[in-house]
Write a structure and sequence with these properties.
- The chain contains 12 helices and 38 strands.
- The chain has 803 residues and is of the alpha+beta class.
- It comes from Astatotilapia calliptera (Eastern happy).
């Protein structure tokens, strides 16, 4: 039987209706736009000819529309002209609900704990009209979805009974059933637009794409068709990730012996940035920015490397050539950005030298054009193999100015952290080539700047829009370029510059500048009003309730936002960590996802060029990811005899939900609460053996709770790092259940007190082990977590294994 549990139901045909109603029950929760493939709706690339009402926004492309049209005409071949006229509108409307932007809700597909409906949920009045006019089409609709044999006896009975007919079809949510869902003003007011909460915060979601990184400071791509991305860690490693998410085990670059940094949280020194030559396929060079100590003197070093002749995924470490070194008077304010502009020149962003208030000299380093500190530099690194490391572009703004360094492109910057180049609108190219930077403030304000040639960005005279050094601020010759946006320290104390979204997958985000704050963890956005030139601010928050209940998506992230990134296709990411130390493996890369609208299927397809790999691939496993165990088709009604194993879709989230195929249900053996496999009968009662598990639940529930394992004569907890649904299933099977429904992380099911030891960490099971001790894991008692990361499990209590 195809059911939620894949357990055999021993019943007779007259009991099918209650079972059917159970399988078609609806979820009484919030409704959000979602298609039956568990993705957001879209605007089809061409207007639909059959389900025309969904041509602007829905869940069908032209191919799907044609398929539904074919099903409609196959059904209507059973009718004469009068029957066609009377029933065609009902059959068409019901079939076209697969194209509704609320298809997932109408088919009860939003809730992972309930099976999908065979037909969309109808409103009561509409169902009554349908029953009076065309009730005998029900069997044809069910036959159309492939359930003719299983529904045959049932439909013959309920087609004559109005109450039972509509109990079968009606969705109890009166506002969200068809056709009311089309006229619900609240639901449809902003349909297809970016979700906003009542305070105007834009609701977005995330997808985890890499983890276990040590302060990931930069992520770049090669723009060479491979869709690889390169991730730099503050320690001095750079790693290559392929388009499928796997990582090459050999680093692209290893400068850990040269890089100056430390493990203490907040150290601004280290490997800070990498940029690839814009013609990387032919000019196989990379440029890096890192801190170094030379004869006990701290410096910033910008170096050039050449790709290895033997491996496209490694730099030749012996090829390093120093482009530029700048002495740092203090250990902070190191800047740390390299990027190539659309003009082909290399831009270098250097901090003001550190300490507080730029105390160096009469006006500070930033206002002094004879020093490179506190500047944006522009140099030409082309054709330098047999000459100086770089030359000066002929149009650099201060080239002829006495005592000014010719490299200077802009000045008056404090400590710019993360800059980007706007790709431009994909249709109009509006904005192409603009350079935006976040500049970290001193005491009161953080700012975002639009970099222009020759611009003075005001520091230390100004901080944001306000005066910092009042004497310098009143100087009429300052002529500074004001920020496009500044925010006070109540919102955050260390801006991390971002990108203007120009990708394909999320059309609603086009033109939105997304950035963040390292200290507060706040995500923010700006959108330019092209008429006034002003930038409108909106905070970004994680989608609530059902908003992010899509496969692979999550709605939480680590606080410390280190950097933003753009992949080769223009999709946006940010890099964050829970522990801001160069040695802590707490770094995660998140892809930014808009759940309100996607591009139409096929529009954003990419075919990465092949990459020759030397070494091994390390496959990616997300720590968090939402998963739904439902096929994007209708679920069959159980019969009385056969057992079929459903296909499964792998997934995870803060709540990990996955239901693997289950065996035929057997009569369970009696079980005491909290006791499962792992007990041996001995004199005087039951005796535990090493590796026994239990679920500790504050509510006393036997099928869910904090996982505890018996080792060394006592119970201890298990950390949630790397713990997946496979590990959860090992626990549940020990306790007599068939499988795990969910893995609950971050002590959601209860946190042990300090008297309880932590026994296991980094547990990775394949799923077939008899105990967690047989899984790949850290040594017993060795861990780097707290009880705030105690893992919990929810087991499937409907199907119980007989051991």
């Amino acid at each position: 039987a195809m059911g939620r549990n894949a357990c055999v139901f021993h019943t007779s045909p007259h009991h099918l209706l209650p079972i059917l109603l159970l399988l078609l029950r609806t979820w009484w929760g919030s409704c959000h736009p979602q298609c039956l493939d568990y993705k957001p709706p879209f605007e089809p690339r061409q207007p639909l000819a059959f389900c025309k009402e969904y041509s602007k926004f829905g869940c069908c492309d032209v191919e799907k529309d044609e398929e539904i049209s074919g099903r409609f005409y196959n059904i209507m071949e059973n009718f004469d002209h009068s029957g066609y006229a009377a029933c065609g509108k009902y059959v068409r409307s019901i079939l076209c609900q697969e194209c509704s932007p609320y298809a997932a809700h109408l088919y009860d597909a939003e809730d992972a704990d309930t099976p999908m409906r065979a037909l969309p949920g109808l409103c009561g009045d509409y169902c009554s009209d349908y029953w009076r006019q065309c009730r005998y089409t029900l069997s044809l609709l069910l036959e159309d979805v492939g359930n003719s044999q299983q529904f045959a006896n049932l439909t013959a009975t309920i087609e004559e009974d109005h109450r039972r007919f509509c109990e079968f079809l009606v969705l109890k949510d009166k506002e969200y059933c068809y056709p009311s869902v089309l006229t619900n003003a609240e639901l449809n007011a902003n349909l297809g637009l970016l979700n906003e909460d009542p305070e105007g915060c834009l609701e977005l979601c995330l997808q985890e794409v890499a983890n276990g990184l040590r302060n990931p400071v930069a992520m770049i791509h090669a723009d060479d068709g491979t869709h690889r991305f390169f991730v730099a860690e503050q320690l001095g490693y750079v790693w290559v990730y392929l388009a499928n998410g796997s990582r090459i085990d050999r680093p692209f670059l290893n400068l850990t012996k040269a890089v100056l940094t430390s493990p203490w949280a907040g150290d601004e020194r280290g490997f800070l940035c990498i940029a690839l030559h814009p013609r990387f396929t032919t000019v196989r060079k990379a440029y890096v920015y890192y801190s170094v100590s030379v004869k006990k003197e701290e410096r910033i070093r910008i170096s050039e490397f050449t790709v290895s002749a033997h491996d496209d995924n490694q730099l030749d470490h012996s090829s390093e050539r120093t482009i530029l070194e700048v002495v740092e008077p203090a250990s902070n304010h190191n800047g740390g950005q390299l990027l190539f502009g659309h003009d082909g020149y290399l831009y270098i962003f250097i901090g003001d030298g550190g300490r507080a208030g730029d105390p160096f000299g009469k006006f500070g380093n930033s206002q002094n054009k004879s020093t490179l500190l506190g500047k944006v530099l522009r140099v030409d690194v082309d054709f330098n193999d047999n000459s100086a490391p770089y030359s000066i572009p002929s149009d650099n703004p201060f080239l002829g100015e006495k005592e000014a360094r010719p490299e200077v492109y802009a000045y008056g910057v404090r400590n710019m952290w993360r800059c980007s180049i706007d790709r431009g609108d994909p249709v109009t190219t509006e904005g192409r080539g603009r350079m935006l930077c976040g500049d970290v403030g001193q005491n009161k304000y953080e700012e975002v700047d639009l970099i222009v040639k020759g611009g003075n960005y005001g520091w230390r005279a100004k901080e944001g829009f306000s005066c910092y050094d009042r004497k310098l601020c009143q100087n009429s010759s300052l002529d500074d370029v004001l920020p496009i946006f500044a925010y006070p320290h109540k919102l955050g104390k260390s801006v991390t510059g971002g990108y203007i979204y120009r990708g394909c997958q999320m059309p609603n985000l086009n033109g939105l500048y997304i950035f963040g704050d390292f200290m507060s963890g706040r995500l923010m956005s700006l959108r330019e009003n092209v008429t006034t030139g002003e930038w409108q601010y909106n905070e970004i928050c994680m989608g609530r309730d059902q908003t992010c209940r899509f496969p692979k998506l999550i709605n939480s992230y680590y606080k410390y936002i280190i950097s933003f990134a753009e992949d080769e296709a223009g999709e946006l990411y940010f890099l964050a960590t829970g522990v801001p130390s160069a040695t802590a493996r707490g770094g995660v890369i998140y892809k930014i996802v808009d759940p309100s609208r996607r591009a139409p299927p096929g529009k954003c397809s990419i075919k990465p060029s092949p990459v020759k790999i030397k070494g091994k691939l390390i496959h990616f496993h997300p720590k968090e990811e939402y998963v739904i165990n439902k096929k994007p088709t209708t679920t069959a009604v159980p019969t009385t005899t056969t057992t079929t194993k459903p296909t499964t879709t792998k997934k995870k989230t803060r709540i990990v939900i996955k239901k693997p195929p289950m065996p035929t249900r057997k009569k369970p053996k009696p079980r005491g609460r909290g006791r499962g496999q792992g007990y041996k009968k001995a004199r005087g009662g039951w005796r535990l053996w090493v590796g026994s598990v239990r679920l500790v639940s504050a509510e006393g529930l036997p099928d869910r709770g904090r996982v505890e394992i018996f080792i060394r004569g006592q119970w201890g907890t298990v950390c949630d790092d790397l713990f997946t649904i496979k590990s959860g299933s090992v626990v549940c099977r020990q306790l007599g259940f068939s499988t795990a429904l969910a893995v609950m992380k971050r002590a959601v099911l209860g946190e042990a007190d300090d008297s309880v030891r932590i026994f296991l960490d980094d547990v990775e099971c394949e799923g077939g082990e008899r105990s967690l001790l047989e899984c790949k894991r850290s040594r017993v008692g060795k861990h780097n977590c707290s009880h705030a990361e105690d893992v919990g499990v929810i087991c499937d209590s409907d199907c119980i294994n007989d051991y």
